[in-house]
Each structure stands twice: as C-alpha cells, then as structure tokens.
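About this split. The held-out portion is used to measure sequence recovery: a designer receives only the structure tokens and must propose an amino acid at every position. Recovery is the fraction of positions where the proposal matches the reference. Here is one held-out target exactly as it appears in the evaluation file.
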C-alpha cells in the first residue's frame, strides 16, 4: 500500500493536494479550491479524479466542486455538520468515521474553531495529515466560528499524533506565521531553525509543506499554549491553556 501526494498552488495562496492510491489508481482531491489547478495537476500526473475530500465550507475550499463533478465521475465526501453550507456533497462524514481511498484508510478527526464543523483527514499508516485551515505550519486558522476551548482541545488531539506525521495545510502562510511566532517566542531554537528554513524555501520559490509534526510541536506556539513561557509572555501565568491559546490567537490577529 502506498499513497502518493501531489502538491500544487491554487488561487492566490491556497495549497491544492491530490492523493493517489497506487494499488488501485483511485485519486482524491483534498478540498476543491480551483478547478483549473486541480485539472492541471491531474493532467501532469496522468491520474483520473475519483473522489473529493472536503474539510470545511469556506468558498476557497469548495468553489470547484460543481465543475469537477461535471467533468469527472467523482464522489464528494464532506462534513455532515456543514452539509447545509456545501453544495454537491454525496457522502457525509462525522468525526470518528473512516474513508477508504482504494487501500488507503483516512480517519476523520474533528477540528472546530476556524469553522464549527471543520474536519481533517489522517492517513495513519502513511503518516499524512491533511489539516486544511485547522492547523498551519507555525500557525492555525483564524477562529471565525468557534471558541478557544474546543479549538485548543482539538489541536491537542492533532498534537498527539506521531512526530513523523507530515502536515499538509490549506494555505501558504508559513513565513508570516514565523514572523509572529518569533515575536512572542524569540529564544526558541526549533522555531528559529524552522523560520530560517522557511525563508530559504520561499526565496527559492519552493513550498513550505509538508511540515513535520514533530517540528511543529516544538516550534508552533499554538500547539504550546500549555507551556509556562508562553503564558508568562502574555501575563497569564497559571491561567488555563485555553486562555493562553486565546491570547496567542488574538495576538496573531492583531500582528
């Protein structure tokens, strides 16, 4: 069993992903940000789209569903909790469900906060996490619909995944996230190393994903809201981690 991941640019700063089960030839798009970008990636690889896995209802993740359904015989899977906001879903998913792409199993995990019904897809065997806007490299998505407590609890579940997990997020925000992270955690050696790596990658016109979850656990401040140093930075020593997480998120919103 082997999963091949193709990463490509879409829209202005979205990442697009094709995941291909080499045993069966089935291919899924993770979200549907832009039909032309998805089709170009399929053509480049010589793959045929069979499925679309949707993480949440925002337009830049679902806009291409109608065109892709028109042009391919696809099954569109997406969050049951946001079904009323997403046109074209065929199969509804809830946290705890499993989705098979050929021989590859994806676990569906809850990731509320950016949107209330946001889900992510985890290929445990292969070590791939498609986190969309729930978890970025060195950041997390804006808390448009959720509240700090549930979002923090969901991120802890993602943090508990193996260090070897590769994180494929929804946008190329890593350089901006690094600048903010360094402003609140300037002595973090893992963060400084990751920020330098990101600077080199972007200067060379390369992607900053996938990100290694083990590095994110050390460098991403949003995954470390339960560490005393970050609490102290915001004057919240002894406060619940969810309060520290909220302060970090507010700090990034205003950065």
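Reference sequence for scoring:
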């Amino acid at each position: 069993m082997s999963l091949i991941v193709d990463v490509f640019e879409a829209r202005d700063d979205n990442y697009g992903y094709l995941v291909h089960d080499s045993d069966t030839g089935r291919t899924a798009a993770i979200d549907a940000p832009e039909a032309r970008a998805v089709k170009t990636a399929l053509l480049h690889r010589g793959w045929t789209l069979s499925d679309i896995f949707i993480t949440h209802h925002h337009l830049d993740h679902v806009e291409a569903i109608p065109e892709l359904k028109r042009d391919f015989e696809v099954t569109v899977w997406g969050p049951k909790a946001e079904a009323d906001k997403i046109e074209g879903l065929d199969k509804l998913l809830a946290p705890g469900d499993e989705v098979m792409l050929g021989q590859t199993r994806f676990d569906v995990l809850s990731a509320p906060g950016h949107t209330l019904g946001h889900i992510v897809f985890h290929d445990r065997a292969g070590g791939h996490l498609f986190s969309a806007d729930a978890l970025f490299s060195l950041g997390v998505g804006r808390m448009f619909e959720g509240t700090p407590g549930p979002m923090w609890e969901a991120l802890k579940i993602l943090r508990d995944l193996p260090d070897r997990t590769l994180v494929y997020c929804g946008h190329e925000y890593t350089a901006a996230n690094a600048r903010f992270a360094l402003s609140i955690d300037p002595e973090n050696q893992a963060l400084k190393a990751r920020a330098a790596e990101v600077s080199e990658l972007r200067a060379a016109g390369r992607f900053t994903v996938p990100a290694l979850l083990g590095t994110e656990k050390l460098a991403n401040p949003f995954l470390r809201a339960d560490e005393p140093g970050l609490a102290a930075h915001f004057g919240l020593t002894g406060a619940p981690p969810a309060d520290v997480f909220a302060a970090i998120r507010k700090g990034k919103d205003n950065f």
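Annotator remark: Residues 3-253 form a domain with the Metallo-beta-lactamase; Chain A fold (CATH 3.60.15.10).
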